[in-house]
Amino acid sequence: METDTITAISTPIGEGAIAIVRLSGPEAISITNQLYKGKDLGEVDSHTIHYGKIIDPETEEVAEEVMVSVMRAPKTFTREDVVEINCHGGMVSVNRVLEIVLSKGARLAEPGEFTKRAFLHGRIDLSQAEAVMDLIRAKTDKAMSVALKQMDGRLSGLIQRLRQELLETVAHVEVNIDYPEYDDVEEMSHEMMRQKTKEVNKEIENLLEVAKQGKILREGLATAIIGRPNVGKSSLMNALVQENKAIVTEIPGTTRDIIEEYVNVRGVPLRLVDTAGIRETEDIVEKIGVERSRQVLKESDLILYVLNYNEALTDEDRKLFEAIQGLEYIVIINKTDLEQKLDLNEVRNLAENNPVVTTSLIEEEGINELEAAIAKTFFAGDIDTGDLTYVSNVRHIQLLKQAKQALEDAVNGLEMGMPLDIVQIDVTRTWEFLGEIIGDTASDSLIDQLFSQFCLGK
Ligand code: GDP
Ligand code: ZN
């Protein structure tokens, strides 16, 4: 168990004006008491908040007026004593407060260390801890609510239930083998085992299916707006950005930082990537040929293909239809305020089963219909995302795939008539893979690696 007291700046999500210095550990209260002028925090009730001043030990002057929350173990996030010093004076003063706290013997927390302690003290399981990380990175409301639910233990609950079923199966086989004389324990047959493993496999498959949507929620749909020059691609981009709050993020690590714009269309986060070949793909077919352009387009999750109502279809338009065949796309027929020159029937034929929406971006018409089409494409019908258990974490998806593979090995073994005690080795492997998701069978180094990915202060 950790015995020192850690501290970091941990600013709550969505509250820019307040910054918090958080302490956790056995000395959290006594350290704060040394630099705090107000009530004796050693005497106050747990889970209370107090107004006071932080005194700078060098100048003996007031460094900051603060509200201090005192929360005693074990009913805290880390299950240790926790103090939160709420500063309102901006980053300079919060940094000064942190310095003072450090000078009194607290240690600067490593990234994710608060959450790691919560995990190590059994307060949360690994998938919940990872949800904290997702929460910090969440870019849309929906992604945030998915993370919140995971933190809440929904995924853990489901995984635990599946593991329990596998465990019971294995235990059943063990009993049959070790105590063949127990007549009251029903003999586990190949058929029973096959049924159980298939049931669990089906549930894992379901989880993996919704994982695709989970990834979308977390990372946004890579969206390409394509079409010939002048059809209204930039206008569409602007319309989407204006209607929906855009979040601009810079992703470092590339020579030229890529600017991405996130727009949230009815809960579907679109990631409009502003790099050559994605945002402005006019002439793409001409420039790089159908095969290559298809490759570029393939990397998009969604294609918005814009056509001009005021122009007849060209060969280039038809080539673009070919290039996006089999991909997820929506056709937008723009400029309906102008005279019709486009053959709508031909367009509908070429578009096969993909949605076709008409707009006049200049008159701000049809944008609602387009947004509805986008939402419908990704939440097939009216799936209430609130009720799904999403797996949105790459590590979890990887483990689920491994679990599924192991379980399929078991099913194959059963079908080949292998003895149950051999088959159950694969069932046990499945159980272990699922366990790694919630941290039950995770090794120490994995845990260290995971927690080091957290932001500081969480
Ligand atoms: P892009 O080259 O495909 O990006 O097309 P732009 O968005 O730059 O638009 C080309 C021109 O078409 C601009 O002058 C726009 O104002 C105009 N435009 C865009 N949408 C409409 C529309 O719905 N109706 C009309 N009449 N003009 C439009
Ligand atoms: Zn443009």
TrEMBL record:
Its main location: cytoplasm. GTP binds at residues 230-235, 249-255, 274-277. Mg(2+) binds at residues 234, 255. It comes from the Bacteria. CDD domains: trmE (cd04164), TrmE_N (cd14858). The keyword GTP-binding applies. Coiled coil: none annotated. Residues 220-379 form the TrmE-type G domain. It is found in: Cytoplasm. K(+) binds at residues 230, 249, 251, 254. Keywords: Cytoplasm, GTP-binding, Hydrolase, Magnesium, Metal-binding, Nucleotide-binding, Potassium, tRNA processing. Its EC number is 3.6.-.-. (6S)-5-formyl-5,6,7,8-tetrahydrofolate binds at residues 22, 84, 123, 458. Homodimer. Heterotetramer of two MnmE and two MnmG subunits. NCBIfam families: mnmE_trmE_thdF, PRK05291.1-3, small_GTP. PANTHER family: TRNA MODIFICATION GTPASE GTPBP3, TRNA MODIFICATION GTPASE GTPBP3, MITOCHONDRIAL. Belongs to the TRAFAC class TrmE-Era-EngA-EngB-Septin-like GTPase superfamily. TrmE GTPase family. Exhibits a very high intrinsic GTPase hydrolysis rate. Involved in the addition of a carboxymethylaminomethyl (cmnm) group at the wobble position (U34) of certain tRNAs, forming tRNA-cmnm(5)s(2)U34. This is tRNA modification GTPase MnmE. It comes from Virgibacillus halodenitrificans (Bacillus halodenitrificans). The lineage of its organism: Bacteria, Bacillati, Bacillota, Bacilli, Bacillales.
